[in-house]
Amino acid sequence: MKQARDRCAPHKDDPWLIGWFIDNELEWFGKSGREWGLVDDIFKLPQGNSAKTALLKFLQEKYGNDIKAFNKAWGLNLSSFRDLDAMKEPPRTSTERAVKDKEEFVGIIADRYFEVTTKAIRTADPNHLILGCRFAWTAPDPAWISAGKYCDIVSVNMYPWVDLRKEEVRDVEEMLRKRYQQIHKPFMLTEWSFPALDSGLPCTHGAGERFATQGERAKAFAIFQNLLFRLPFMVGSHYFMWVDEPKEGISTGFPENTNYGLVNERDEPYPLLIEAARKLNPLVYYIHSGRMPLPKIEIGEGRIKLLNEGEAGEVELAISVNGKGEERKVSLARELELEYILPSTPGAYLVDVKAKWEGLKIGEAKRVFYRKGASWHGERKRIPLIIINKGEEVGRDIPITIPLAELPLEIREGESVVVKDIEGNPLSVQLDRDMGEIHFNLKEIQPLHAILLFLSINPSALRIDEGGIKVFQAGNKFEINNGELRLVKDEDDGDLVDAVYLRGVKLGRYQPLIREDLSQQLWVAPNRLEKVEVRRSPFKVVLDIIASFEGEEAITEVGGRGELAPQRVVPLSYRVGYRLIVYPKVQWFIGKFLWIENSSTKPLPLGAYYHYLPSEIGGDAGDDEPDGAPRRWCYIHEREEVVPSYYNPLPGASWRDRKLPAWYGAMPIWESDFRFVFWKDEGGREHPDIWKEVGKTLSPGEIYRDDKGDLLIFGALGEGGYEELASSVRCWQDIRWEIREVEGE
Q1: Residues 601, 698 within the same domain
Q2: 663 and 591 in one domain?
């Protein structure tokens, strides 16, 4: 009350004051980073501490002072509730009931915090808003709910990730809309920024996605600010910050040295960023209220209809047909219909229409058209198969897989499949009945293009060239060679692949890993393979691998000096299934998590599962570094350091050996919930973290499955090798296909 009275009361009649922030970036997850972390921290407090006393009172009342009932619920064996007060560490329990009790008490903490603080501020100053406590990106659900209950506006700080190529912001809109549905209060985003490395500052410390240039920085600013302007519940956006941080760092304990400013230390503006803000910010009320053109784009044959769900205005259109484009500027009122040229010759055509207003993307639509009438080349029936490149990269040697279940014709025993281009030239194709798929490679496809192929049935089986991928297997050991990559499993351990080679250069290993959220978080890798099943065709090799863990060793959290914390609990045993898919003559393969089974006799709190890629590029991991990031001199630490959170147009993460140069890493396939952070701790230990949060407790024998557990694992060699790979993979991810109705001659 005294602080609120001293700070707030003198300004209660200030007409220029909007409101008060309660605090900034509190540790709502505690030191452990878990939803109930605050409760675990309370157990570490001295005996008789007020927070500990409140927790014990809560548990005693919840269980009617019955220690036996409490022991059963928490899986403990205490003689009385007083034993909890004497604890210096949280109890070693992870039962579902214990977790729920801890989360409930976090709700009590949050409710009490916001009730007391907001009452104190409103007593001192009833005339202004209370703007929340500036959550650091997120917080446990009870904290959000209590903030919405007591505050006028809920504030959050976040440093988003912008994809410049797609002009998209990852995850932010979905997260904010979800939170708004919880609290139904306006939002204010109170800290965000994008540094750039051409500022001359090291940018080795502090949050925020780094870009190479001020131009990229300005583009990211406009994309993200535009998103915030569009959200109807967002009422404020605070860019961080006015002036750059010093290159020497702020202090030894706070070594930030990053280009956050609108101006540098000499008070000189960054022109491109200033211009982006000057151009966009005056449009805020037009965008926020929808008083701008908002076209719904409908593409017909030779005609485009724009249905405006916003206000009238000038719209810039970019129209392309199989990559051949034109630009037009039109005045859009309520509805507008335009003509464009769609070729009448037989073939497949991708029409792409993009709309912009004041340089901002406001709409895009794509549609594929099929013109019949292509010549026949000996077949009696055929299925039009259209391959589509929706992206802006040239695709070469693209593997295509078509499930048999998608075909409108049945392929009988003894028959085979033929795929021809529109000129009648056959492609090399494989019918794989075991996997229920058709495989072939597409030699080339241009950006924003559609290609017409025809699939037909041959009454006799074709001879298949078996030279695509070389496979050796002896029990659970194997070697796969696709002409570029060589995957070797020759050790008696739980790794999926002991060595990945690209053109003879060793890159690293590939292993499963899970996080068990026991009373201490443990990262647990399998220690044996139970089974390796290989299925082979010339166009694809599939390995289904079952690995398991039973033992006592695990990885613990890393301390500030790179040391691992002492292991206090024993991990639980489990079995896990992964799948590897290898295609011929490409620099990547697919790793897919399938399932995990709790093979222990206790509930297993599955926090997350991982694709883990320790590197050993060129046979030595010592000089491998997290890539995507340049190095800059850190004056305060007097050494070169890797720039964190550096923008990479190819999402994912990789290790890099700068001397070779060579890369080893992974990236998501399609849309993915995986998180990618490759880093080295102060002890030099690698942490190739690719993980997906699960947050589910598995009963003994229970199986957790995920049908979106796959990602692409790659290698690259030589100058320009990574950029070439990136272009190829981006295109592969943009490839789609469509099947049309059966045609008869």
Answers
A1: yes
A2: yes
